[in-house]
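Repro case for the chain-ordering regression, as requested:
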Amino acid sequence: MIIPIRCFTCGKVVGDSWEEFARRVKAGENAGEVLDSLGIKRYCCRRMLLSHVEIIDEVLRFYEEAEKRKEARNFY
Amino acid sequence: MTEISKEDAHLLLKGFFKEKGLVRQHLDSYNEFIDHGLQEVIDEVGEIPIEVPEAPYKVKLGQIWIIDPQTRITGPYATEVDGTKHEIYPMEARLRNLTYAAPVALEMTPVIDGREQDTELVYIGNIPVMLKSKLCFLSQLSREELMAAGEDPDDPGGYFVVNGSERVIVAMEDLAPNRVIIDMDEKGAAPVYQAKIFSTTVGFRARIELKLKPDNAIYISVPGVPSELPFIVLMRALGLESDKEIAEAISLEKDIQRALEFSFEKALGVETAKDAILFIGNRVAHGQVEEYRIQKAETAIDKNFLPHIGRTAESRKDKALFLGEMACRVIELKLGRRQTDDKDHFKNKRLRLAGPLLADLFRIAFRNLTRDIKYQLERIGVKGPVITVSAAVRPGIISERFQHSLATGNWGRGRVGVTQLLDRTNHISTLSHLRRLQSPLSRSQPNFEARDLHPTHWGRLCPNETPEGSNCGLVKNLALSACISVGVNPEKIKQTIFSMGVVPIYEANEALKLSGAKVFVDGNIVGYCSSPKELAQEFRQRRRRGEISTEANIAYFSKEFSEREELYVNCDEGRVRRPLIIVENGSPRLQPEHIQKIGSGEWSWEDLVKNGIIEYLDAEEEENAYIALKMSEVAPEHTHLEIATYTILGICASTIPYAEHNQSPRNSYQAAMAKQALGVYATNYQQRVDSRSHTLHYPQVPLVDTALMETMGYNLRPSGQNCVVAVLSFEGYNMEDAIVFNKASIERGLARSTFYRIYEAECRQYLGGLKDKFTLPEPGTRGYRGEQYYRLLEPDGIIGLEASVTGGDVLIGRISPPRFLEEYKEFEVKGPSMRDTSTDMRPSEIGIVDAIFITQSGEGSKLVKVRVRDQRVPELGDKFASRHGQKGVIGLIVPQEDMPFTEDGIVPDIIVNPHAIPSRMTVGQFIESLAGKTASVRGKTVDGTPFSNESSTELRKALVKLGFSHTGSEVFYSGVTGQKFVANIYVGVVYYQKLHHMVADKIHARARGQVQMLTRQPTEGRARGGGLRFGEMERDCLIGHGAAMLLRDRLLEESDKYTLYICENCGFIAYYDMKQRKYVCKLCEDKAKISPVIVSYAFKLLLQELMSLCIAPQLRLKEKA
Amino acid sequence: MKIEVLEKDERNMRLLIRETDVPYVNALRRIAISEVPCLAIGEVVIIENSSILQDEMISHRLGLIPLKTDLDSYNLPEECECKSEFGCNLCRVTLTLDAEAKEGTRTVYSGELVSENPEIVPVSDKIPLIKLAKEQRLRLEAYARLGKGKNHAKWQPVSKCTYKYLPKIEIYSKRCDGCGKCVDICPRKVLAKSQDKIEVRDLMACILCQDCVKACPQNPKAIEVSGDENTFVFNIESTGALPPERVLAEAVKILDKQLEQFENDLKVKKDED
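-- result from build under test --
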């Protein structure tokens, strides 16, 4: 759903690196190099960021769309 | 000639899926039904004759429209209690338990005395709408608009919403109708050669069999005629009177004609057509008047015999010719010139989808409606110049029929299980459910040949995805590249081939009939051709140019297959076809510029088909094709090239990485388990009200994926997590497929899921104005549970949000009026008291109230749905599986410090026992382990697509470069003792799925509890607090031990012990007389000597059941020794 | 026992420990993971939650946030004099969160947690806790307590605490023919080839995997790798709650206390006998 706070296996905090990782990978950088630059060395921590899907963004869309409609109704 | 790389093939397939979607077959079939199927059913009836005594008139039926005449709504809608109608979206239908259906209106014109009156557009009922079909609103919306409507944009559609629940019409796989299948029946002493045909026309299906019996005579079974008819008699009845005519209709070859000798003998005495019809009449209606016999016989051969050719007297000659063809084949089989037809060859199978099935329903319902209209109009009579047909129409007939059949799955005429509740465990299970095929064969019979994997299944049906057990091989799943034909009008095709040089039957001369190839269109012989091979080539060229519809397929069978050359043209619906790249003169037509155009979006998949680069082949035409597997293998003899080999797999099997390295049953197990894995089944799960659902808290995309996962949408809705897996025997807790988990990983969120359950209650209204009420029940009401159970209810009777509930707590408080009012008039003076019909939580479950939906149902009554959630943290007993059929249950949860560790700090999440590997041979899991590790360190997912993946040697090289041993093992130190393990342990990253079999749903205990009313034995099932069955085999074990007292304890004391009073005199059961205060036997009043006997209540039940059959069981008693 | 610090920074520490043995080093490792206490949120009272994630998921996430720990000012709940379930100022820190998405969808970070003690704050304030859509609100009160890793993983002060034996590589130049197979196969590039001779380039990097030994074509093998069972390279990576040297120091103290307790128990038994 949302990025887990810690690596499941070792317990290192990886949640705070997610946003930068996602942004840089989307911009086209090589994911392995981004992870290296963020200091995430062990493969247990690396897989947390590499294989994560932020499904919460999609689930939030339903509430955002509902908000938009509510605003549109209030507008009139 | 450049290579088509695997990326190019993948690009092509992406275009294919983008255009077609994954449930194209359902949508196409339904759209076809709405566009043409509805009108065809109406046209069959045409008009309704109304027999009013003085002035009979007709009602002519015109065009059918999807519109409501009153409100002009043209899509799915709902009617409120006050009569207002408004359009609805599927989400509203799901929440309010409505049916997502659109209005249907028909033009009706009364024709009085030949003059047509005004045409009326009459509303005749509601037809359920398939989601994302043409009629559904969702098909027009963009992704954002879909989300605004509360729908998951990646939901595939292709199902119906009936009474709030999602129903799928599963495709039925059947033998092709109107095709002759020849068989040999070897059960008896001598073989019987048969030809069978399921002659099907609209709404009518008849099975006709032609047998060549050991006495060398041919007999035919006609539906409606009790016994078999000799072949020649039937031919004469159909109009071919002379022997010569009959013999020529069968075959012009002398050998075959000679074999008819015995059949002719059986028909001695029947020389003319009239004789033959009388002969048949004698069999059908024995002893009746001659005219009646003739009439019955004529009905039998016109209406019931070979109805697909025609149902009137004009088609008798065609039927005779067809019969001749059947007889010819049977004789060829006997003479050894032809092989038996393979019933499992996919060319003889057709799939029946939602369209034809709904058409069947509509036909029955519409006929009922016309009968009802007729009755109503005849009742009204003629009352004035203008006749309003709409007053006589009851729309409920059609609407009810559709709703009832879709909701229950009963399709009339004994067919059950046609619709199923859509499986929403995870995204893959939904897709797989929508691509399923059912076979009508019985589940209890062995049916070995039908269950086998047939070579023609290549590319059409998944070889691995089939259930284990009684359904194995009968329930199949479509492969990814399979398409189902929609069908074209055969008339047009017939015209085309006539123009290409085929001589129609009646025009063909003898020479052509002897030497030419027979040409069949959809199973019917239409003519002869002298150069069949060239004709087939020309046909294919024209099809590739676009002059002939792409739906038609042609196949040419040379003299290898049978005595004569034959040409088959198929253009009916329900054939499973697959796309292939056309190869001409040794080079494929697909060039790099085409791939570029697909990539840039300039061309879509359809453009490739239109330009003759790709064509669809069905199982019959594939017999003529020589298909190359790989681009590099293409030779001049090849006619086609596979696009990608991995499309032979279906949806679930495509989730398996390195599948070609696994023993194939393991892939089948994974295909079954992928459907049970927890994930995110839809992003709108918070708005949905599914009766049971699961959500995984932190799903992850597999690091080793397959090329098809993206198309299936698996990367957006994954159903598992990547885990660090070590292969090691650990303390004896992972024996026999158990697995060991890391406690700290679980505490950090690994494999956590939430389980949601819906409890619903509706305030119904009864006759007499009484209705239910949602409220906090008073302590005095009948059935009051106890104050503590209602403690969480708010004044409106519904529980509060975020309240913690356990089994027994009331969620929705409701009181209802007593059921049978009359009973209570005797006992109670005061008015009817209400009883408590509250909805409570299931006994063994706990949770927190997550959401409450309060709405109004279709009938206007208040409807409340409460969703309760329960967080499921992995515990001992929960089931997990990798993607290679390696399932296991958690055997031990180990604290992190006790886990073996490496120098880098890697600690396994899961420890798998190495004994699980040798006999199962799932090498794919080990390669996935290497690949997962490589992917994590490299930073890029590894492609594990079957047949085109990164090989293990490449992976090993990469591992060394990245700093890990090429063996995949690492040096581990024991967590407990701290010493280095002597051997290196194999560790890697493997994708594990959490399956929905969790121990919290299964744990069950009972000491003493509820018993059944009928047998007084403990109830069955966890939900009812039941006991576990001490079955026959367990009883045998106790007998084997000689443990008599234990047996008596299990079967009597703990179950249904009962003291039965028997009269020793007569041996029947005695009863207790209240007034006399003793046991009496009514039969032997004074001589009775009543003795008690201890038996099980089930035995007493048996005695009484025998008594109900008028058998008198008497017990003879003896004193206890 | 001799200790030499090889590397040290704010979170990581690498030591070379000589003249000790496996049980002792393992004991330190285990205690560092499971017995050294640190602060983490234990209980959450949710006042308002209209977000997408359910209460228990948010509480789970809050618990996992590492908090800067002050071991000297706070007591373990079971050892605190107040002996109350709710806790007192000496054993409990209150953190509050009041987040609302006014303009549009936004992410709530750990930095928004407000602590009653400005020293006890999340180690990183960029951890995304939850995303709120417009009009969604989250208000809660969280109580942080000291706890031990053996009770829940959130109270583990380290994310990596491991060791290895000091590697010992012996190359027999007489048997070696310089084929270089061991150099190629070594994953950590420990060996290097120079003028037909194999030499050790980076001894500390060796992971004792024995791949080079297996790859050597000579019989008897020209290379031998073993580990010294009395010298260890010890690694600690802290989550930030405590500095790594403090973790180790506490581990030693706890081990001493446990041993003392054990000795006392033995003495009592002996006296009883």
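Ordering looks correct now. Residues 354-380 of chain B form the longest helix (27 residues).
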